[in-house]
Amino acid sequence: GNNNFSMWDVYKIASEKPLRRTALSGRGQSSQMSSVDDLLKSLIDFGSAISYRQNLEGITFNTGLVIAFPDLFTNIEDVSLRHIDTISKVNNRLTIELANKLNIRFNTHQVDNYGWRQPNGSFDGLMGRFQRYELDFAQMAIFMRLDRIDLVDFVAETFRIRA
């Protein structure tokens, strides 16, 4: 006959991290709710779970970065030669901002090409690293091509390339 219930936000930051639980409070500060009105108020008060999940507690991701002109490349932050590996330089800055916002770190693996399908079906370059599960994400934009669709999930464009 007890019509009280509780609602919890439950998630893990990473597989090796402990389970996180946050109770959605009912009226007052109790986690017990007894009506739909209590539930709706609790959901409104709780807000978006995204805002509670932005601290990834310093976990480390393996990332890839293409340096297509290694003989001319000096440093990822060197803007004196803006025309050398421009896509890598721009997207590296975006990744650093993402890392700062989400409290993450990354081990960067440098490759010299984006990845092309080889005669045996494997890929070289960045796509090869993804195919072998060596990377979590790329620090850069990459062209969406049909042969790459099976290997990676494309998220969003960082800038448009136009002629």
What keyword list fits this structure?
163 residues; alpha/beta; three-stranded parallel sheet; two-stranded antiparallel sheet; elongated
Q: What do you see in this structure?
A:
- Keywords: Receptor.
- This is Ionotropic receptor 75d.
- This protein has two domains: 8-46, no CATH class; 60-150, Periplasmic binding protein-like II (D-Maltodextrin-Binding Protein, domain 2, 3-Layer(aba) Sandwich), CATH 3.40.190.10.
- Helices cover 24% and strands 17% of the residues.
- The chain has helices at residues 36-46, 49-52, 86-102, 125-131, and strands at 7-12, 19-24, 60-66, 105-111, 137-138.
- The protein has a three-stranded parallel sheet with strand order 4-3-5, sandwiched between helices. A two-stranded antiparallel ribbon has the order 1-2.
- A hairpin with a 6-residue loop joins strand 1 and strand 2.
- The longest helix is centred in the middle third of the chain and has 17 residues, at 86-102.
- It is elongated.
- The chain starts with 6 loop residues before the first strand and ends in a 25-residue tail after the last strand.
Order of helices and strands: EEHHEHEHE
> Overall mean pLDDT score?
85
The percentage of residues in β strands lies in 15-25%
Indicate the percent of residues in helices: 10-25%
> Could you state the CATH homologous superfamily of the largest domain?
Periplasmic binding protein-like II
How far do the termini sit from each other? 70 Å
Oligomer: single chain
Walk across the major sheet and give the strand order. Answer: 4-3-5
Q: Could you name the ranges where pLDDT drops below 50 across 5 or more consecutive residues?
A: none
Might you state the CATH topology name of the largest domain?
D-Maltodextrin-Binding Protein, domain 2
Number of domains: 2
> What's the tally of helices?
4
Which geometry do the CA atoms define?
Answer: elongated
**Text of the CATH class of the largest domain:** Alpha Beta
Strand pairing plus helix content: what structural class?
Answer: alpha/beta
CATH architecture of the largest domain: 3-Layer(aba) Sandwich
Radius of gyration over alpha carbons? 22 Å
Number of E strands: 5
Could you describe the largest sheet, including whether it forms a barrel? 3 strands, parallel
